[in-house]
Amino acid sequence: MQASGQWHIEHPSRGDYFSIWSLADWHLFNAACLVDRLKEDIEKIRLDPNALWTGVGDYAEFISPSDPRFNPDDVSSEVLASDLGRIGPKYIKAVLDLMRPIAHKCLGLGFGNHEFRYMKEKEQQNLHGWLCLELAKFAGHEIPDLGYSALFDLVFHRHPNIKRWRGPYRTASPPRFGDVFTLRIYQHHGSGAARTSGGKLNGLVAKMREFEADLYFVAHAHEKQDQELPVIGANRDCTHLTEIRRVGVRTGSYLRTYAQGQTGYGEMAGFPPSCLGARAVEICPNERRITKIVL
Questions:
Q1: Which domains does the chain have, with CATH numbers?
Q2: Does the pLDDT value for residue 176 go beyond 80?
Q3: Has this prediction a pTM greater than 0.70?
């Protein structure tokens, strides 16, 4: 697990809103991947001037011929027979190309079970690290490797003397002006193979109880879910009750469970149809809260 530090963002107005996207489970190069839908969401992030995003893993399929899950019918027609001996470099470069237009808005990249298993079995443990380093060249700032799970902060500073927001950036000496709002984010690629929505939701809520944060991003289950978890406490001298609002979001996938003319491992396992597309939250630093979930 990673404790990944703080990102600082300066913004001019009390009315500023920011959207934070969670992108995961692309499963690029699976024949059932909806690449056009993925490109649509990437374009939404690119066009939104106040959008930021974090990657939560499983960007490509990473199932090689030596893997017992390998099925040639699952492989995209873009993959040639000559590619099968080097799918790691081919897949990760394609992921990088898709991320390039929104690199400057990236807060970090985690990896999922597909990357982890491939890197371990092929002794290519730095494949994900290479992706972070290469994306940083286009971002103009560091792209932290968030591992399988991580905690990190977004610190919003209201600076009325600037015309547009600045950041995200890291600094050992944060600015000392205006209102400050800190949002702690926890992300975890996800685990388990729950088949019901209730089982998947229980997994999300468990993370919200186990880790101290304000916003939780979880993926893996290919279902869109969200949950609020109020936590009651008291002020410093214990004379008034306080409430901390935790928000958990499970993001969707771009891999169809059921596709015409194809029998994939999800169908064979009897998984429910995937909820397609990413999810995001909208944040108003002045209101010091998450204002809504964006489908």
A1: 2-294 (3.60.21)
A2: no
A3: yes
